[in-house]
Amino acid sequence: MPLPSLQIRDATEPDIPAIQAIYAHHVLHGTATFEEIPPDEAGMKRRLRTLQEASLPFLVAELDGMVRGYCYANFYHTRSAYRYTLEDTVYLEEGWRGRGLGKALLSALLERCEAGGWRQMVALIGDSTNAGSIGLHRSLGFRQIGILEKVGLKFGQWHDVVMMQKNLGKGSSDTP
């Protein structure tokens, strides 16, 4: 479905209320995230600033002046050997899945990360039944590399984490 008024842009502090509301919905009603208490706006602002200070991309999808989704890349782990590996995060406002918004966001994020010189992108997808996120990542060249079984307890049930990975740019074909 075409989204003619879609604008993918860098997130800014005025976007925080929309970002926080989108994420809070997923925290309270889904298993894509294993967080159980939604961060408040101040917490989301700190996350945005931390990523901006590290020169990591944090993007929003704006349609008709409204933020309908967001995505960002963060370091996969803090140990120095992981410095070329990132982990992606993508969340959409309820009702916007399956319309191409997630693909537009994640595509833009991947382009930014390749341009930034990073070599690998990892997706840790909460819940192995999350067909939408798994399909989105697969459609953009991610491959499933494993499943962490029953590692998250949320809503009184154990949930898996699907691990997916994609080469960025030259990937591991050489060293930077």
TrEMBL record:
SUPFAM superfamilies: Acyl-CoA N-acyltransferases (Nat) (SSF55729)
InterPro entries to which the protein is assigned, alphabetical: Acyl_CoA_acyltransferase, GNAT_dom
Listed EC numbers: 2.3.1.183
Pfam hit, one: Acetyltransf_1
Gene expressing this chain: bar_2
Assigned keywords, A-Z: Acyltransferase, Transferase
Domain N-acetyltransferase, chain residue ranges per copy: 6-169
GO molecular function: phosphinothricin N-acetyltransferase activity
Protein name: N-acetyltransferase
Lineage: Bacteria, Pseudomonadati, Pseudomonadota, Gammaproteobacteria, Pseudomonadales
